[in-house]
Each structure stands twice: as structure tokens, then as C-alpha cells.
Amino acid sequence: MSDTEEKRGDGFPEGFLWGCATSSYQIEGAVDADGRGPSIWDAFCREPGRVAFGQNGDVACDSYHRWPEDVRLLSELDVDAYRFSIAWPRVQPDGRGAANRAGIDYYSRLVDALLAVGIEPWVTLYHWDLPLALGRAGGWTDRDTAYRFADYAGTMFRALGDRVAHWTTLNEPWCSAFLGYEAGEHAPGLRDRPSALRATHHLLLAHGLAVDAFRRGACPGEIGLVVNPATPRPATRRPADLAAAGRASVERTGLWLDPVFGRGYPEAYLAARGASMPVEADDMELIAAPIDFVGVNYYNEDAVKAVPATPLCPDGYAYVPTSIEKTEMGWDVVPQGLRRVLGFISRSWPVRELYVTENGAAYSDSAAADGSVRDAARVAYYRGHIAACRDAIADGVPLRGYFAWSLLDNFEWAHGYGKSFGIVAVDPKTLERKPKDSYYFYRDAIAGYSE
Ligand code: IFM
Q1: Stretch 3-21: mean pLDDT, rounded?
Q2: What is residue 112's predicted lDDT score, i.e. its pLDDT?
Q3: Is 221 part of a structural domain of the chain?
Q4: By C-alpha distance, which of 234, 209, 119, 225 is closest to 168?
Q5: Atom from ligand 1 closest to the CA of residue 228
Q6: Predicted local confidence at residue 330, as pLDDT
Q7: Exposure of 209 by Cβ count < 10 A (0-12 exposed, 13-18 middle, 19+ buried)?
Q8: Annotation marks residue 172 as catalytic
């Protein structure tokens, strides 16, 4: 191959997809613009003590207005794809009924602008900003929310389906169900395990109904689900710790992928809780509607040991400290954990295609005298994890693409703006965007320069 031939991603197969990801509530701001309704996150941020420093997504990165600049940054990065999410309350302010044209037009303009510079839009239908009206009616604990979601999904398929070839239904539904309804860390902030389990089933039903609508609408393109699997490693090689690590992976992995691949809910998981799911006729068939790909969001890998099961910890495992370098989230930096989780998923479920739909790290950056933004730790993180993707492909994993999280420093949920994942810095006052060293590293990695 000569130097002038296109050579992307050194050591990656031809056609491997390089992308960057964001989500609506984390970057858009403009929460009152053009008829957008409130979301559960708008309300949650206003509850005292929920979000660090009482921050919220009212302005965020103001991408609702500054998206042309974001598209330019993506274009200069030379990514193949941009993964963003639709704010449901921009499209259906109350989560039901007639669509808000202005909301749809915003995404339509964004899609057109991306396509005009050769970037494929990857649309996520739900990245946690549920319309508040639905939240007040029970949110994901209410079965009707699943039907409302399918209706909204159908609206988006009709509006953008002529130009969008890749859709994902839900982003990290474990977070919606368990951080939202059991841990109380995310909107709506409940601490109630039965609610989290009801939410799990209704999220999966919403996913299945949306896939069904996609197929019945004969939409061109592909549709998948994005999970954030956990496959902790056993603290020791003792059989009890090995078994504990297996149990520790279920809630974030098999609880979602088993039903989606037609195996029903993991029985041991439900039995340990004395729980059952609110399954109605045909639900499990709908949930198992065939999908085209699975998206994996990976940040870290934990270590666990066996402990006696208790009502608080029904799966009988506990996290143990490690000596591993941590990001500012306190998350262990384990690039080979990405290789392991991709291998685990491709061996355990009949996935046709896998994508790393998010991967990145929170670190604070420093300004150099020449004005550049130095983030050597994030560069090292990306270098290690991109290499792990190459290893996974060599292992035979059907990995087809990789998305960096995130294009921009943005609203990191309950952490507010205190944790920065961007490869582009966003000045909190002026909202000026400045590419960091990691942005240039990623551009070079995509271009195929190893070092
Ligand atoms: O910022 C989040 C994103 O919204 C979902 N996946 C994990 C990221 C980092 O915490």
C-alpha cells in the first residue's frame, strides 16, 4: 500500500467503523427551546442534593445551537460515524400524541449536515431523558411507557429512516432501571428493588416493540441495543470467587442479553431475589425480536470476591480494592478487560455484530503555555483500549466499530460538570470548544498512524 492510499486504523480490518458519541441531555442545553417538554432529568436536577453543585443540563454544551461547530469538529477528526441521541421530549413534549415538528427538524438538520460531510448518523432513541409527564405517571415502572416508546420510535423511523441506517433503541438500560429505581443515583431517584425489576421488563418490552415497529415499517438499515455489561474478574482463583464473578456479571449482562436472545430471564438471578417479572402474553417473543448488532459500552473492569448472600446483596459478591491505576471516576483502567468482555459476549450469545459504542475516561486536563490542552492520561487510555479492540478482532470477535466517549466535555449526570470525558474541552463560561491532545491522537489512530 502506498502512502497516498486510504489506510484507516492501523491493523484494523477494512471497513472498520470509527466514531464518536454523545447524548442529548448531556450536550444539547436549550431545554425550553422550540416546544421541548421537560424530562425526568430536568426535574431530578432541581431536587436538592441529587446532582453535584446543583448543576443541570439547561445549557450543557449548547449543542442545540452550536451543532454546526460540533459537526465541523467531527469532520476534521475524520470519523465515519457520529452516535447521538434524540431527546424524546423535543419530539413529544409530553411523551405522547402529535409530534413537535420543530424538535424533529432539529435532528433532521443535524442528520443532513452529517451526511453532507460523509459522516454516518447513528441514532440512539433513548439515552435517559424520559418525558417528565411519563415519569410522573410511573415512568418505566408503568407498562404503558413501553407502548409510548414504540409510538415515539415509529415517529422517528418515519422522520429520519430515509437517511439514518443505524439505530439503537436504548442506551445502557441497566442504568435506567437500577441507577434510576434501585440506587436512586439517577432520575427518577427511587430506592426500590421491585420498581427496578418492573422497569427492567418494561425497558426490554419497549426495546422489543420498537424493533418490531422497525421491521414492520420495513425500514432500511440496522437496529440494535446498547448495554454496559460488567464482567468483573475474580479476586482470586478460588472456586468461590470464580462463581461470585459469574453471578456479579448477570445483572448488567445476562439479565438483558438472555431475554433479547430468546432465553428468557436468568432464573437464578430472580430466585435470589424471590422476584418474578411482570411478563404478559407474547412479551418474551417481542423482546426477542431479532436485532442486527449489540453495542457495548465499556469503561472499566472490577474485581470481586464471594461473600455470604444477604437481602441487600442477594448475589453474594463484594467488590475488592485493586492496585490498578484509576480514572477520576475512581474506575480501574483495564484495557484488556475490554477484550475480555467482547470475547465473553461473542462466546455467550449469538451476536452477529458487535460495536464498542462508548469507551473513554474522565481526567482533568491542563493548559499548556502554547494554548493546547494536555491530557496524556486520556491519550494512554485510548491507546490501550484501541489496541485491546485489535486484540479482540484477532481473537475472532465480530467487532465492527468503535466510538469514543465523548466528543465534548459534558454533563456527567449526578457528577455534574466535574468529570470530563471529552476529547474536546468546552469552556464552561464561553462554551468555546478546544480539541485536546486526545482528539489529535484519535484522529491519527483513525488515519492509521500507530505512533
Ligand atoms: O456519560 C456516560 C454516558 O451517558 C453513558 N455511559 C457512561 C458515560 C460515562 O459515565
Answers
A1: 84
A2: 99
A3: yes
A4: 225
A5: 6
A6: 98
A7: buried
A8: yes
**Can you list the alpha helix ranges (DSSP code H) found in 262-349?**
267-273, 283-287, 335-348
ω into residue 188 within 30 of 0, thus cis? Answer: yes
CA-CA distance, 208 to 286, in Å (whole number)? 5
Closest by CA to 202, choosing from 218, 180, 183, is 180
* Chain length of the chain: 451
Evaluate whether residue 2 is within a structural domain: no
**Which tens digits make up the pLDDT trace of 274-317?**
999 999 999 999 999 999 999 999 999 999 999 999 999 999 99
C-alpha cell of residue 133: 409527564
CA distance 173 to 228: 8
Q: Is the CB of 358 under 6 A from ligand 1?
A: yes
Looking at 28, 301, 358, 412, which residue is catalytic?
Answer: 358
Nearest-angstrom CA–CA distance, 386 and 273: 38
Question: Is residue 120 flagged as an active site residue?
Answer: no
pLDDT band at 1 (very low <50, low <70, confident <90, very high): very low
What are the CA-CA distances from residue 53 to residues 14, 86, 187, 414 (Å)? 46, 26, 16, 9
Q: Does 8 map to a domain?
A: no
Q: What is the mean pLDDT of residues 21-31?
A: 99
As given in the structure block, the three cell numbers for residue 351 are 451476536
Q: Whole-model pTM?
A: 0.98
Place of cell 459537526: 71
Which CATH number fits the domain that encloses residue 284? 3.20.20.80
Q: At residue 230, does pLDDT exceed 50?
A: yes
Cross-strand pairs, 332: 326
Q: How many domains does the chain have?
A: 1
> What's the pLDDT at 6?
55
Catalytic residue from among 172, 182, 251, 301: 172
Domain span holding position 135: 17-450
Name beta bridge partners: 168.
124, 224
Which secondary structure element, helix H or strand E, spans residue 356, and what is its range? Answer: strand 354-358
Query: 12 lies in a domain?
Result: no
The helix (run of H) or strand (run of E) holding residue 255 is: helix 254-260
Rounded to an integer, the average pLDDT of 258-266 is 98
Task: State yes or no: pLDDT of 63 exceeds 50.
Answer: yes
Residue 5: its pLDDT value, please?
53
